[in-house]
Design a protein that fits this description.
Layout (H helix, E strand, L loop, with lengths): L30 E12 L2 E13 L4 E5 L6 H8 L7 E6 L2 E2 L5 H11 E4 L11 H11 L4 H14 L15 H13 L5 E5 L7 H18 L2 E6 L10 E6 L2 E4 L5 H4 L3
Parallel strand pairs: 3-8, 3-9, 6-7, 7-8
Antiparallel strand pairs: 1-2, 1-4, 4-5, 9-10
Helix pairs in contact: 3-4, 3-5, 4-5
The structure holds adenosine-5'-diphosphate and magnesium ion.
């Protein structure tokens, strides 16, 4: 149905729609997103936030999506990771056509395969650092002993071995962010989605986090999609994709382009 609120479509929207794919599609990419569109209603207007985005990411790649605030980075991450259904387009992640699946199956797919690192830490106030990590592993049906070992190992990886039994009110902002990262990485996810993972961190802690994400990619074969406007992260990426006003402007930007900002 034609929505009268919709503003005039840009010419780019007239590209042919991608071929429909079955739910169990195969692709050489860890993530193959095509033709992603998303609009939000803002008062009487529809605002087109993603205007037809393709995103192809190889297994083990660490890709940074960079763009100014409001360019659609978080919306793109949500659409690609199964958190928010796009209005159009397809996402094949680990050979699974995710938006063809039921909500419940998508949730299960995310639990089994995806680690999320968000801007806010979303920690439980009453739980210690170790418990914050263990709770996810419990959802994954690990037994108590394995949970404890995996949580300790993940916290050691982010240099928080000495904070294992602290609750969030006894942790600094940087420490909280590192707990959230340990929680995301403890289950050794095949796909890691990070939204401004270093926004609460100083330079040193930012480096710890990005080094860890690189390690996940290079040693465990995880695929990392990180969206940020922090130019300091550019050097950690295999590839930089730039987004502006809901459209990709480059799929292989030169990291040096970002270096002069700092
Ligand atoms: N749930 C929503 N409802 C309405 N507008 C939204 C919603 N989410 C995002 N937007 C708008 O979409 C645009 C892009 O947002 P976002 O993807 O968060 O950008 P970025 O992460 O690059 O800063 C912004 O103008 C934002 O206000
Ligand atoms: Mg954002």
């Amino acid at each position: 149905m034609i929505n009268p609120l919709r503003k005039q479509k840009p010419v780019l929207d007239e590209a042919p729609a991608p071929e429909p794919r079955p739910a169990g599609a195969t692709t050489r990419y860890a993530i193959e997103a095509r033709g992603i569109k998303k609009s939000f209603k803002a008062g009487q207007m529809m605002v087109d936030v993603l205007k037809g985005i393709d995103l192809l990411i190889e297994p083990g790649e660490i890709v940074l999506v960079m763009g100014p605030s409001g360019s659609g980075k978080s919306t793109l991450l949500a659409a690609v990771s199964g958190l928010m259904k796009p209005d159009a387009g397809s996402v094949i992640a680990l050979d699974t056509n995710i938006w063809r699946m039921s909500r419940r199956k998508i949730d299960r797919f995310r639990l089994a395969n995806c680690g999320f690192i968000f801007q806010g830490f979303n920690l439980f106030p009453a739980l210690t650092a170790s418990q914050q990590v263990q709770i996810i592993l419990k959802f994954m049906k690990l037994n108590g002993r394995d949970r404890k070992v995996a949580a300790e190992s993940a916290l050691n990886d982010v240099n928080l071995g000495h904070r294992m039994h602290n609750r969030p009110d006894r942790l600094s902002g940087g420490e909280k962010q590192r707990v959230a990262i340990a929680r995301a990485l403890a289950k050794k996810p095949k796909l890691i989605f990070a939204d401004e993972p270093t926004s609460a961190l100083d330079g040193e802690n930012g480096n710890v986090v990005m080094t860890l994400l690189r390690k996940c990619a290079k040693e465990q074969g995880a695929t990392v999609l990180c969206v940020t406007h922090d130019a300091r992260l550019a050097t950690f990426a295999d590839r930089i994709i730039t987004i502006e006003d809901g459209l990709i402007t480059s799929t292989n930007a030169d990291p040096a382009l970002f270096a002069h900002h700092h």
